[in-house]
Design brief:
This protein is mainly α. It has 16 helices and 13 strands. The termini are far apart.
């Protein structure tokens, strides 16, 4: 057959509808999402939908809210693709409102239900959010690029001065998010507040305060979507700026030493955040234990041994008074040792096993730490992490039960008081079955197979009763209870 009379079937061409934004400027995944919708179920992994074994999207809640959640994710993804390709809001509008584009179904549904003006306003909001997201994120071309970005983030975190108690707490939270990002393979990751609090070894109240006062204003973290149900929030790590609001207020008290007009600590730090990440979740470094100052000092000494207290003030970003106080506390546990004016980590200090040190005044040997658990016991912080985890588990369970009750739309039983006693109001039961489904001996025929269903019976009033192993009453007892309740209601009415 001649070539000019036969053409192979092809998918619709999106480039005809968006004013010059052709396929060459959009990734193939973006074009497929616009033309065909979410075929792979990538945007269906959430609280209201999931991907079935046959690669079909299954809505766990078959209502409008579940479908809208899934549709909004597709719309937001398309908007980000258009913004990253240098498109405009007019081009996005043409893509979403074209009747042949499956990816714009959610927007067209809004236009159908609420009008064209409401749909255009929705597109403007989605576009503004997409532009902001694209301008503050990076397009990762490969896995190696993602690892390079995470390595740059780790270097930036380790060289940024985290001054004050709040700054050091922010360092723990940020390092926890970096752990999650390294597991996810990129700066985009998922984490709940409880999960982050357990990883960083702090409370949820402290975590929220650090989010709002340090990390979000400093540009280190962006929450792209709030978590719901069993799904944590979606976060994005960025190269933030130094927390300038956390300058220390401690200055040399002696005028002969001159008052410094700059912060006491240096403008750059030098710590090993991997060591900090390994130790920060332990009870020994809780707020009333060794604390965050000990964490950063140990991390700084692990990066470079034999530092003076003055050098540690700069490398660990800890004030002079806090440095001397914390070093003394670590030395009492045998975790650090000093020779002259220099300090260094004791052998096996990172495992929490110190070495006995002689007291210069009494000649006695101070009790060395026998592991981080022993340090936590000495400071009265042993068990904090376990109690926090148990509390979070109970909170998750209670929250999930509340979600289950809400999803089932359970309502309290209605009763009336008649002659001093409560009478149950029978609820409407839309479970009557046609007579053609009735089988002998009160059994019911399954509509699909035409065979009697083992777990179902038909009551005398023509309604279905499910018999399960959890039922302690027989079919006759269930039917009698239903008849008695109906009789009491009719007599009371």
């Amino acid at each position: 057959m001649p070539d000019n009379t036969h053409h192979a079937p092809s998918r619709p061409n999106a480039s005809r509808f968006h004013g010059g934004l052709g396929h060459a400027q959009l990734p193939s995944a973006a074009a497929d999402l616009i033309l065909l919708g979410d075929l792979t179920g990538r945007y269906a992994t959430g609280s209201y939908s999931r991907l079935a074994s046959d690669k079909r999207t299954v809505l766990l809640r078959g209502d409008r809210q579940g479908a809208a959640e899934h549709g909004h994710r597709i719309t937001a993804a398309i908007a980000c693709h258009v913004a990253r390709a240098g498109g405009s809001i007019d081009q996005l509008t043409q893509l979403l409102l074209h009747p042949e584009h499956e990816g714009g179904r959610h927007t067209r549904d809004i236009a159908l239900r609420s009008g064209q003006a409401r749909a255009l306003d929705y597109i403007r909001r989605v576009w503004a959010s997409a532009v902001q997201t694209v301008s503050t994120t990076l397009a990762l071309g490969s896995r190696d690029h993602a690892y390079e970005l995470l390595a740059a983030l780790r270097d930036r975190i380790e060289t940024t001065p985290w001054r004050g108690e709040r700054g050091r707490t922010a360092l723990r939270v940020l390092r926890a998010h970096l752990n999650f990002a390294e597991t996810a393979g990129g700066p985009l990751h998922h984490a709940s507040e409880r999960q982050t609090a357990e990883e960083a070894g702090i409370s949820r109240t402290t975590l929220r305060a650090v989010y709002e006062t340090v990390l979000k204003p400093g540009g280190w973290l962006r929450r792209l979507r709030v978590g719901h149900g069993r799904e944590g929030s979606t976060w994005y790590l960025t190269l933030g700026s130094a927390p300038s609001r956390l300058w220390t207020t401690q200055f040399p008290p002696d005028p002969a030493l001159e008052e410094w007009t700059t912060p006491e600590t240096a403008t750059t730090a030098d710590i090993d955040s991997t060591v900090l990440a390994r130790l920060m979740g332990h009870d020994a470094f809780a707020h009333h234990g060794l604390g965050s100052a000990a964490l950063v000092l140990i991390s700084a000494l692990h990066t470079r041994q034999d530092q003076t207290a003055g050098e540690l003030v700069g490398t660990a970003s800890v004030s002079r008074a806090t440095t001397y106080r914390t070093l003394k506390r670590l030395a009492d546990h045998g975790l650090v040792q000093h020779t002259g004016e220099t300090w260094a980590l004791a052998p096996r200090a990172l495992e929490g096993f110190g070495i006995p040190l002689a007291d210069a005044d009494t000649g006695h040997t101070a009790a060395a730490a026998q592991g981080w658990d022993k340090v936590a016991e000495q400071h009265g912080t042993w068990g904090i992490a376990a109690r926090r985890k148990a509390l979070h588990t109970a909170e998750r369970s209670a929250y999930q039960e509340a979600l289950d009750r809400f999803a089932e739309h359970r309502s309290r039983a209605s009763v009336i008081v008649r002659d001093g006693r409560q009478v149950l109001v029978p609820m409407p039961r839309p479970d009557e079955i046609p007579p053609t489904w009735h089988a002998p001996e009160g059994r019911v025929l399954a509509p699909l197979t035409g065979r009697p269903a083992a777990d179902w019976r038909v009551a005398t009033d023509g309604r279905l009763i499910l018999i399960t192993p959890a039922d302690q009453r027989s079919y006759d007892e269930l039917a009698a209870a239903r008849a008695q309740a109906l009789s009491e209601w009719e007599s009371a009415a």
